[in-house]
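Quick check before the chapter quiz. The format below is the same one you will see on the exam, so make sure you can read both the input and the output lines.
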Amino acid sequence: MQATWVWVLALFLLGLLLRVTNLDLKTAWMDEVSTVIFSLGNSSFLLPVDQLVDLDALLQPIRAQASATPIDSARFLLQENNHPPLYFMLAHLWMDLFSTDGVTASLPIARLFSAFWGAAAIPVIYWASRHTFQSRWAGIFSAALMAVSPFGIFLAQEARHYGLAITLISLSLGCFAIATRAILAGNAPSWRLCLGWILVNALGFANHYFSALSFTAESMVLAAIALHQWRHEGIAVLRCRGWRRIYTVALMTTVSILVWLPVLINFYGSPQTTFLKEEGASLMKFINPIAQSFAAMVTSFVTPANFFAQNPWQIAFIAGSILFTLAFIVMFVPAMARGTRLLNRRPTGHTGLAIMGGFGLAMLGLFALICYGQGSDITRGLRYMFTYYPALMILAGGIFATYWQGRSPADALSVATPFTQYRLSGRRFVQGVWVAGLLSALMVVNNLAFPKYYAPDRFIPFMQAHSSHPIAIASTEKIFAEPTVIGAKFLSLGWEIERSFHPDDAASGWTTPPVFFAIKQGDGVERPVTESFANLVSQFTEPTDLWVIRPEIDPADPLITAKPSICQLAADQPQGNKGGYLYLHFSCRNSAPALG
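Here is the expected output.
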């Protein structure tokens, strides 16, 4: 037993090391900016609007304030965003340890908090898997896979709440596995376990609302077991002490969800809840959720390189990694299917597979219902896989524990390699998958895989290269009647300028420091955006290259059709997409007289 915990500790430390490596390498994207704003106890409406400002003034929403409290984090979050406050309140306490009043938050520090939670899931998944399959080896292999999982590391390295979500879902699944095994054996789960399960579920929902999908899948498995026992043993079995405790867990978990109902109603219908909605019918609408779910599962174990290649060697590296991943899939998928059948033949494996495999099937059914029934593709972006990712690690741990017993390429536990006659022993297969995961993990932490959606480090030098005058950067921020976060994408650009292209740095590429302005539009804003736009550009005191961040490129854009007389679309890169930023590029002559 002591040796087991040495392995678990070593895997935890390895997973933590990977998750904290190069936390400052990737640029911040808008969701991380939003996290930092609320974690600091700030409002996104601190963004200066309808005025020309410098970089220092622009970044006020991501500057620490000594007077802010965790209550402020929750208050502004619930007013402006669609997430529950647990992570943000905890992150406020964390950020407070490293923040200086009036100083811009540290992106690596913000990400470090999530990385710690992501690593904490490793020993938890060992515990959950060990109880699911009654096997310490299953637990060790689940922990080993999670330690190097490229998907797990990708989520843990973001300043978001998914690292904590994975840990809480893993805890819930462990309680679920222990309680379900007790019910199947005719015993009652302990009150300590049940109370812990209730608490974990309450915290899970207070961290991410989609955790309710995991709780629903657990209840579906338990309902199927209840139905089976009712049919074979009669209704009386469902009144026994064990089932009464399960009912208590279900009731209290439901109550812990319902207390959030007023908050859920408040932001229902906001763009933050409807952006996944897809209208109309098409073949791709049917295919995408399946393909994206499969890709998410594969990237839990291995991922190809995915970055902006700038030379033939980098292109060759990406192509090679894609070919390797395809070969891996050809070998891995049949091996896992066969391993599932082998695991099912063992009594403890059969029960664990029924529990966690049933959970996985229930989750896939819920995802399908949401994607095809409700019309919202929650498989986009992969992140919502956190709801069943721990179960995937548990199942893989059970299968790998089975293969680990195969020592010869000639025995029944050997695995065929793709496109050859060569076979791997079960143990070599397990080792090979783990090494492939480690190599993928190294690509993730070195920004060679799982790139951010926005790349301000590409857009900023692009603006500099295609501007012949001082630069102004602008954005329009739409406000809705429902809770709205403003300025997150705009701030991601300003934050990267401060981090890597600060105007005070002689090598930053600026001839003069850029200026910024954001324009409010939408609910409660009476002034037309074109009027505000014209008023602000009229304040330019010298010829200016103006870059405007837009939500879409449209020839009928009012900023084009009703542009101010002193501005025209630039001849050089007038519009397009660079680093994920859709832009309009104007060349504006000065209107206001220079001061002095």
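If your answer matched, good. The first strand starts at residue 415 and ends at 416.
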